[in-house]
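Sat 14:20. Reprocessing the chain from the morning session after the first attempt stalled halfway. Input below, unchanged.
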Amino acid sequence: MRIILLGPPGAGKGTISKALNKYDGSVQISTGDILRGAIAEGTELGQKIGAAMSSGNLVTDDLVIGIMEERLLKEDCKNGYLLDGFPRTIVQADALKVLLEKMDSQLDCVLELVIPRATIVERLTTRRTCTQCSEIYNIKFKPAKVDGICDVCGGDIVQRDDETKEVIENRLEVYQKQTAPLVDYYRQEGSLLSVETSDFEPVLAALKAYI
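Finished this time. Tokens:
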């Protein structure tokens, strides 16, 4: 599958894309993971990315487009890809359209996950992440067996800087202003599929019916 996943932070895009990856082998491409990797490297570019992300703001279009073009041209994307977190603006969507034409590739679907705001805030403020392997936990719904220790690798589990309540509220406002217009963009393109769940089975059924 070649799919874009749309939805606000905490809507379940990462969870769905990982499940779809297991289902058909399409590679999951998380813009957030790529950007956090740049931050971990500690370069000047990584520091700029970190400053934007920690305050809940979007990284500049030019930077994201360049990073994603490089990623989509890699060999593992030839059999399908699941874009989680890209595009986030109309400028990025236009750039992606040009890139796909250059690659002689075409999207199968733009999947929008529609989740209530209160649900998102609760999910993100209770979410924790392993600092070593990036495994996701939730202190209410999916706690680690040992508090603060990852079940998978034994690394430390922490709350990310961009998942405090204040930053989450800002991220949702940024999404509404800058990213939500993509819903209309792809609806006009005729490629939008909206589902009111982030549970995998009904999402997969909707995709099968659509594609």
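Residues 165-179 form the longest helix (15 residues).
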